[in-house]
Design a protein that fits this description.
This protein is of the alpha+beta class and 933 residues long. One of its GO terms (molecular function) is metalloendopeptidase activity.
C-alpha cells in the first residue's frame, strides 16, 4: 500500500468519491502563519531511518482468533517494549498503545472490519449512515454529545467509512485521553438509533450525496468503480443511493452492528503522551467486556485478475468548463506481492512533475492541465487510474497521445534515475507520516489491522527498494491493456448521448492503437543549537532558528510583506503567476533539471503569493541540506522567468481560473474578496482575469519579483540543520540593500448588500453570511477566535441548530479571516435551494441570540479548549512551525503571537464575548454571497 495508505486510501478515495469522511466541519485553514513553540524533546522510539526486514514483501492477512485468550488480570499487563504494548483482550479486540512524548497530545483510532464491501444488496450506504448515527444519541450522551465532549477538551472527533473498514478517531490533549477512549467505546457499542434522529440524519446524508454529485472528481470515481469492480462489493458508492439511505431503519442498523461490530474484528490504537500500562488497563476496562456472538473472519485476499471483457466506458455531460477523464485498470489488492511494484510504476508514470506522462502530455505537448497516475489497493482488489483535466477541444489529440504513450510503454526504457527517484519518494512519504501523532497512529493502525504487523513498513520499503524493471514489465503486460481498461469521461454540455458516444469512440480506438503485449550518507552537522535563536541581520531582515531533532528533516521558510499590495489594479494575478514561475527554473537549472534535482532528494520547493505577503519555502531530508539550500538560493536570487515557463505558468493559471468556475466553493472564494473589498488590493482577483494573465510577460514577472525580493524579510528554519550553513544562506540572500515595506490601510467595506452567483446543473445552494471584523492586531482578536470557535465544529451553535436540529445541510460552519487591518467572520452552509430562506433565518437568529445573551460557560470553555487543542495539533509539522515564525516576525507580530492570543483568550468571560458579538454581528453591516444552481 505504501504511501497511498495515508494519502489515497484515506484522502483521495474519501474526496474522490465515496469513501466518506464524517468529519466535524474543518476550521478554515490558518490564514496567518502558526506560532513557534520550543523544540520538543525527541521521541525515544523515533528511528532515524528505515531498515528493511528480511520478511516476505506481502505478509498474510490477519485472521481473527476464533478462541478467546485468557483474561489478563491487572498485574498481568503485557510488558512495555520500546514504549509499546501490543496485545489482544480476552474478547479478541486488539489493543496497541505507543508512547510518544513529543507533544502533550494523544491520537486514538478504533478500526472496525465493517465497510461498504460488507453490505448486502439493499444495504448500500448503511455503513456510512451508521457512522453518522454514532455521533447522535448514545447510551451515555445526548445527540452530538460525543463530538461536544471531545471538542470541550480541546480535541476533535471524526470518523471515516471505507470499503473494508470503518474508522473512529479522536485527537485531543493528553490530559483528556481517558475521556477520548470512553467516547469511542460509547459511539461504537451504545448508539441509540433514535428514529427521529435517524430521519434527520438521512436528510444530512442525502445532502452530502447531492453535494458529491456536484464534484467532478467524485462523479468520475463512482463511474470508474462501477466498471472496474463490477459484481464486487466495491462497485457501489460508499455513501449509497437516495433510495437505500431512505430505506434504513433503526432495526436494520442494529442488525448490521450485531453482525459486524464484533470485538474480534476491532483494533484500538492509542499514540501519544500517555503511560502505556495505564492506557492498556483503561482500554481493557472499557472495551474488554463486550462479547463476540459469532466468528468474523477477513475475506479471502487472492490476487484480483484483470478484467477480460473490456474496454468499457461511461460518460456524462455536465455544466463544466473543463473535461475530465479517468482511464482505469483492475489490479491486485494490498496483500499482493505486486503492491510495491505497482506503487513504483505509478510514481514513474504520473507521480508528479518529473513523471513521464506529466512531462510529455502537460509540459511538452501542453495538451492537459494536469495528469496523474495512482493506484488504490484494497483487501479484495485494486484499481490503477490515469486522471486528467483538460480543455475539451484538446481531448481527441490528448487521447491519441495518451494511448500512444501507454501502448509503447516498456520498463526497459525506465532510467536508473527514474527508478531511484520513485523508490526514494515512496520511502520518504512513509517516513514523513511519523511527523505527527495522527499520522503515526494511522500508520500503525493500518499495518496491524490489515495483518502486516510490526515488519509491515520495513517489508514495504524492502519491496520498493528491490523492484526491478522485469517486475514492472510484468505489470504492464498483465494489467495495462485494452481488455482491462475502463474509461470514465465528463464533458461540458448537456447532451448525455453525445458524451456516451464520444467515450465509446475513444475506447473503440484502443485495441487498434495499443497492440497486445508480447543514497548519500547523512551529514553530521558541525554545529548544533539546542534552543530557539532570533538573529537580526540588519535592514529589517531576521533569521529564526528552531532546532528539532525528532525527525531527520528540515523546513525553511522566507516571508516578505508585499504580495498583491505591490500590484496595480491592472496587474491582478501577477503575484500568483510569479509564484508559479519562480520555482520552475533558475539561470543554472532548466525546469527538468530542477524537478529532477528535487525529486532525487525527496525535497520540495514552493512559492506562494498572498494578499499582503509572499513566501518561499523548502522541505527536505537533512542529509541533502547543502544541495537543497543551494537550489533555494538560486530560486530566490537567480530565477530564470524563461518565456516558455511563463507561458506554461500562465496556462496553469488560466486552467485554475476555469476550474474555479466548476467548483462551488472555489467560485465563491474567487468572488468573495472583490465583492467585500472593492477599490482595495484585498479585493483583487488573486488569480487575475484571463485577459490579464494571458498578457503578462517575463519582464512583468521579473520586475514584480525584484520589487518583492528587495523588501525586508524573515527566514525561519525548523528541524535538523547546520547553524553556520543556514546563517551563510541568510547572509547571501540578504546581501543586497532593502527597500521600505508597503504600508497597509484599512479597506472600505462594500456597500452592496448581496452578491448572487449562478452555477447551473448543481444540486445545492451555497450561502455565506459575512460580517466585517477588526484585523489581527486588534485587541478584539482573542474574543473573535472564541466567538468563531463557539460557532464552528460539531459542538458549535451553527452545526447543532442548522444541521442537527433542522437537517438543513451536510456542511455548516463558521470561519474567521484576518489580515493586519481588516477581516471578516462568515457563516456558511450548503443546502438545497428550497431551504435557502430557512437557513438564512437560522443564521440571523443565532447572530441575534449571541449578541443579546452571554454564551453558556460550558460552550465558551469548549471553544477555549478547542483553540488550545488546535494550537498543538497545527504545530506538529516542521513546515508549520517554520512558516509560523517567518510570517509572524515579517508582519511585526511577536514570535509567540498565537500563544499570547491564547493567554488573553483564557481571561475572557461570556459577557466579553457577548459584547464583541453585539459589536461585530451588526445586521446593517452583514453581507450575503449566494451561489444558486
Amino acid at each position: 500500500m505504501m504511501r497511498r495508505l495515508f494519502v489515497v486510501l484515506f484522502v483521495a478515495v474519501a474526496v474522490a468519491a465515496g469513501f466518506v469522511l464524517h468529519d466535524r466541519l474543518q476550521r478554515t485553514p490558518a490564514t496567518t502563519p502558526p506560532q513557534e513553540q520550543a523544540a520538543p524533546a525527541p521521541a525515544p522510539q523515533a528511528p532515524a531511518s528505515l531498515v528493511p526486514a528480511e520478511a516476505p514483501a506481502s505478509p498474510p492477512a490477519a485472521q481473527a482468533d476464533a478462541a478467546p485468550v485468557p483474561a489478563l488480570a491487572a498485574p498481568d499487563i503485557p510488558p512495555v517494549v520500546d514504549g509499546r504494548i501490543l496485545a489482544k483482550l480476552p474478547n479478541g479486540l486488539t489493543v496497541l498503545i505507543q508512547e510518544d512524548h513529543r507533544f502533550p497530545l494523544v491520537a486514538q483510532r478504533l478500526y472496525v472490519r465493517a465497510g461498504s464491501a460488507y453490505e448486502t444488496p439493499g444495504q448500500e450506504g448503511l455503513s456510512h449512515l451508521l457512522e453518522h448515527m454514532a455521533f447522535n444519541s448514545t447510551g451515555k450522551r445526548p445527540k452530538g454529545g460525543a463530538a461536544r465532549d471531545i471538542e470541550a477538551a480541546g480535541g476533535d472527533a471524526n470518523a471515516a467509512t471505507s470499503f473494508d473498514y470503518t474508522q473512529y478517531m479522536a485527537n485531543l490533549p493528553a490530559a483528556a485521553w481517558k475521556m477520548g477512549l470512553d467516547v469511542l467505546q460509547d459511539m461504537v457499542w451504545n448508539a441509540a438509533f433514535n428514529p427521529e434522529e435517524l430521519e434527520q440524519e438521512k436528510k444530512v446524508v442525502i445532502a452530502e450525496l447531492e453535494r458529491g454529485q456536484d464534484e467532478p472528481g467524485q462523479r468520475l470515481f463512482q463511474m470508474s468503480q462501477a466498471q472496474v469492480w463490477k459484481g464486487m462489493g466495491y462497485a457501489h458508492p460508499i455513501i449509497g443511493t437516495r433510495e437505500t439511505v431512505q430505506a434504513a431503519t433503526p432495526e436494520s442498523l442494529r442488525a448490521y452492528v450485531r453482525r459486524l461490530y464484533q470485538p474480534q474484528s476491532m483494533l484500538l490504537v492509542v499514540v501519544g503522551d500517555v503511560d502505556a500500562r495505564e492506557a492498556y488497563s483503561e482500554a481493557a476496562r472499557l472495551f474488554g467486556t463486550q462479547a463476540n456472538d459469532r466468528d468474523a473472519l477477513p475475506p479471502p485476499t487472492a490476487d484480483m485478475p484483470p478484467n477480460a471483457a473490456g474496454p468499457t466506458s461511461n460518460a456524462a455531460a455536465l455544466d463544466l468548463r473543463k473535461a475530465s477523464l479517468r482511464l482505469s485498470f483492475a489490479v491486485p489488492g494490498m496483500h499482493s506481492a505486486k503492491d510495491g511494484p505497482l506503487e513504483v510504476l505509478c510514481d514513474i508514470l504520473g507521480g508528479g512533475r518529473t513523471s513521464r506522462l506529466h512531462r510529455k502530455l502537460v509540459y511538452d505537448l501542453q495538451l492537459a492541465d494536469s495528469v496523474s497516475v495512482g493506484a488504490i489497493t484494497l483487501e479484495r482488489g485494486g484499481m490503477l487510474s490515469v486522471d486528467a483535466t483538460l480543455d475539451p477541444a484538446k481531448l481527441p489529440e490528448f487521447w491519441r497521445a495518451l494511448v500512444t504513450e501507454l501502448a509503447a510503454l516498456k520498463a526497459s526504457d525506465f532510467t536508473a534515475e527514474e527508478m531511484d527517484r520513485a523508490r526514494l519518494g515512496i520511502e520518504d512519504s512513509l517516513l514523513r507520516a511519523r511527523e505527527t501523532l495522527s499520522g503515526l497512529a494511522s500508520k500503525l493502525a493500518y499495518y496491524h489491522f490489515f495483518g502486516f504487523g510490526d515488519p509491515g513498513e520495513a517489508n514495504a520499503v524492502y519491496a520498493v527498494r528491490n523492484t526491478d524493471p522485469a517486475e514492472l514489465q510484468g505489470l504492464i503486460d498483465t494489467y495495462l491493456n485494452p481488455a482491462n481498461a475502463s474509461l470514465s469521461l465528463l464533458l461540458p454540455g448537456k447532451d448525455q448521448g453525445e458524451a456516451r458516444e464520444a467515450a465509446q469512440r475513444f475506447v473503440a480506438a484502443l485495441a487498434a492503437a495499443w497492440p497486445k503485449p508480447a543514497p548519500a550518507a547523512a551529514k553530521d552537522p558541525d554545529a548544533k543549537s539546542t534552543g530557539v535563536e532570533v538573529i537580526e541581520l540588519g535592514q529589517g531582515r531576521t533569521l529564526v532558528l528552531l532546532p528539532d531533532p525528532t525527525m531527520p528533516y528540515a523546513s525553511v521558510a522566507l516571508s516578505w510583506r508585499g504580495g498583491d499590495a505591490l500590484l496595480t489594479p491592472g496587474q491582478q494575478g501577477l503575484g500568483e503567476l510569479t509564484a508559479k514561475a519562480l520555482t520552475r527554473s533558475t539561470l543554472k537549472r532548466s525546469t527538468h533539471q530542477l524537478e529532477d534535482d528535487l525529486a532525487d532528494r525527496a525535497a520540495s520547493l514552493a512559492a506562494t503569493s498572498g494578499r499582503d505577503g509572499f513566501t518561499v519555502s523548502a522541505s527536505y531530508p537533512a542529509r541533502f541540506s547543502k544541495d537543497v539550500l543551494e537550489i533555494l538560493a538560486e530560486a530566490i536570487l537567480e530565477p530564470a522567468f524563461a518565456p516558455d515557463e511563463i507561458e506554461r505558468a500562465a496556462k496553469l493559471q488560466l486552467a485554475q481560473i476555469a476550474q474555479a468556475q466548476d467548483r462551488p466553493m472555489s467560485l465563491a472564494f474567487r468572488h468573495l474578496f472583490p465583492y467585500l473589498y472593492p477599490g482595495s488590493h484585498y479585493g483583487y482577483l488573486r488569480a487575475g482575469t484571463p485577459e490579464a494573465v494571458a498578457a503578462f510577460t517575463p519582464e512583468d514577472a521579473r520586475a514584480y519579483w525584484e520589487a518583492q525580493r528587495a523588501l525586508p524579510w524573515t527566514m525561519a528554519v525548523c528541524g535538523v540543520f547546520d547553524r553556520q550553513e543556514i546563517l551563510e544562506l541568510a547572509q547571501r540572500i540578504g546581501a543586497t540593500p532593502a527597500t521600505a515595506a508597503p504600508g497597509f490601510t484599512q479597506p472600505a467595506w462594500t456597500g452592496e448588500k448581496q452578491l448572487a452567483l449562478n452555477l447551473p446543473g448543481r444540486n445545492q445552494t451555497h450561502i455565506l453570511r459575512v460580517y466585517p471584523v477588526p484585523g489581527r492586531t486588534s485587541p478584539d482578536s482573542p474574543a473573535l477566535e472564541l466567538l468563531k470557535t463557539a460557532l464552528a465544529g460539531q459542538g458549535g451553535l451553527l452545526f447543532k441548530d442548522l444541521r442537527d436540529n433542522q437537517g438543513l445541510g451536510y456542511s455548516v460552519t463558521a470561519f474567521l479571516w484576518q489580515a493586519q487591518e481588516t477581516g471578516f467572520l462568515a457563516f456558511y452552509i450548503g443546502t438545497t435551494p428550497e431551504k435557502r430562506q430557512q437557513a438564512l433565518d437560522g443564521f440571523d437568529r443565532i447572530a441575534r441570540d449571541i449578541a443579546a445573551q452571554p454564551l453558556p460557560l460550558e460552550l465558551l470553555q469548549r471553544a477555549m479548549n478547542s483553540l488550545e487543542g488546535d494550537y498543538y495539533q497545527d504545530r506538529q509539522s516542521l513546515s508549520s512551525r517554520s512558516h509560523e515564525a517567518a510570517g509572524n516576525l515579517a508582519f511585526g507580530l511577536p514570535l509567540d503571537y498565537e500563544r499570547e492570543l491564547l493567554a488573553k483568550a483564557r481571561q475572557l468571560g461570556p459577557e466579553d464575548v457577548r459584547k464583541l458579538a453585539a459589536q461585530v454581528l451588526d445586521p446593517e453591516k452583514a453581507r450575503l454571497l449566494v451561489i444558486e444552481p
